[in-house]
Amino acid sequence: MVENRPLLTILSHVILILGVAAVALPVWLALVASTHPTSSFVSGTVPLWFGSEGIRSYLTMLGQGVSTSGTPPLGHMLFNSLVMALTITIGKIAISITSAFAICYFRFPGRQLAFWMIFITLMLPVEVRIVPTFEVVANLGLLNSYAGLSIPLIASATATFLFRQVFLTLPDELTEAARIDGAGPLKFFWDHALPLSRTNIAALSVILFIYGWNQYLWPLIVTTDERYYTIVMGIKRMASVVDDIPRWNEVMATVVLAMLPPVIVVIAMQKLFVKGLVETEK
Fold this sequence. Notes:
This protein is mainly α. The protein is built from 14 helices and no strands.
């Protein structure tokens, strides 16, 4: 039951506006800062309204990069981040959904043990696995490559667990009906399990794409060639110049451009994303 009281309505709207302002303020400051010349930040104050250098800042970053910090043009770094994010997303979904399907629908010795061994990997922080993972990648000759950027991050216990829970909600009658119709495991997976997981795949894809796009530590370790720099690495290099003052307008222009692909993905898949989190089609 929802109470219709004007005072509560006003209070809820005030809280909502304050929450939106707190979330949007850093984005607004980054957008405004990208339109001012570098000299505007020497005094330590940040302007609150747009300046006149916006177009120049964005064109400079897209076309030339910043040579003083060793940052290449953003176009190639955006492409590298896109390749890394898509590879991680597709790889995680493919491995997780097939492993969850095998755990739920195949009866083999050690099935539960296999699941719990996958689940236990959730307890291992990424930092614990970085040194041995780096050694394996180096021994395989995958440093400074798209494979080295993406493959070590593909395995996902979280996604396997989520798909397992989805498959457990499918009724046994569906499995029996498919078996009576002569459907084998692969046909059942392709015709029934995969379509019924569509919204879950969409929701998980959005989360995994953002996860892959925002990766910082792993690309920083496995890449020394600027041809494989990601956009997040570029922001870090621009903000930590040693012999010069950071050009904050161009740093913020890079930040704004780096935010656009994840925002586009979220907006494009908003309906499926929400449905996959709160509803099921079973």
